[in-house]
Amino acid sequence: MIHSVDEFKTHFESVRSGAGYKDPIAFGIARVDMGQKNQDKVLAASFAVVNYNESYLSAAVLFEALKSAGVSVDFSGSEFVAEFSAAAAAAALASFAPFAAELDKHPNVALISKIAEVLKDDPSAKFKAVFIFRDEKPASVESVYLKLYLLSLGKAELRSLVLDGAFGVLSNVAWDKDGKPIELEWLCENEIDLKMRGAYPAITSVDKFPRYLSHIIPADNVRVLDTAKVRMGAQLAGGTTIMPGAAYVNFNAGTTGSVMVEGRVSSSVVVGEGSDVGGGASILGVLSGTNGNPVSIGKRCLLGANSVTGIPFGDDCIIDAGIAVLEGTKVHIGEKDREALAKINPSFKFDRELYKGLELAGLNGLHFRQNSQTGQIVAALSKRAIKLNSDLH
Predict the structure, then answer these.
(1) Does 194 lie in the same domain as 135?
(2) Is residue 262 annotated as part of the catalytic site, yes or no?
(3) What is the pLDDT of residues 103-126, one digit of tens each?
């Protein structure tokens, strides 16, 4: 039992300085959903508190608690996952004793206190302590979910975490109306029984990723009008509105401010504050036509209905409805517009009439249009100020 804050700090700083010890870059404790047929198989993980480059003493408490519960902690890999038992929870709470009266100020302590309470009432509940030491390809379902939480909660910037291989780690499962995963194999084997008893679950989707709203409480000025439109791992800044219909925001993609989304924001895409992704507009992701180059949309941009964008935009750009600007698209810029655009893009050399779309990536103030007589894509200086309806955001 630790009796004072000073004793707590002294002891766990000593733990951190021990031979072979490593601070995790991220950690948390998740309640895990296990397979209905394969009961050793983790289907999903739910975190209530996640830590990123912070709370190192709390991590030391968890490591020591695991050791006291008979778990041998391995610091050598990129991640470490272990069952967090009632014994580990009790040991951690003994170390956290100086903070027991202030749970509202210490989320990790409040979390472990709740886990201990749950395990007392339901010993079959499964919890896993998850630690990431190096940001590499995830090797476990639990570490994938920890990274998705870090992104969706805004603790890590979009595109800043390695998620390569995540699809190979996660299982394809059926998600019921309560956001719980069900093994497809178990459903198939029990279909007759479930249907004849009228107990077949209401399935909302079959996917490797859950829905964002099944795990994340958004800011109070974020609106998501259809739960199917945002995948877990997306990041929605305050003021963002995701409309129903053609709108969609994939994992590791999202917004940095108030944004209206009525089109597709593919994986790895970041949309800047004040921008409007029009109905059916599509921003291509790294797997859909950008040669692996992630696309960012700057501030105050407008993507017209059913437009397609495969290059990054700077601020104050417009692409008209129904046209596509891809990396290889030939874009014509007239002399007067080249002179005007050069003033707001002084580092870019406007020295000819024709450019490939990729050459114009990231420039400010471009308005992409299509000549209705020749079909040629042209760019001019944008003269429209894009303003979102403040009543909606």
Answers:
(1) no
(2) yes
(3) 999 999 999 999 999 999 999 999
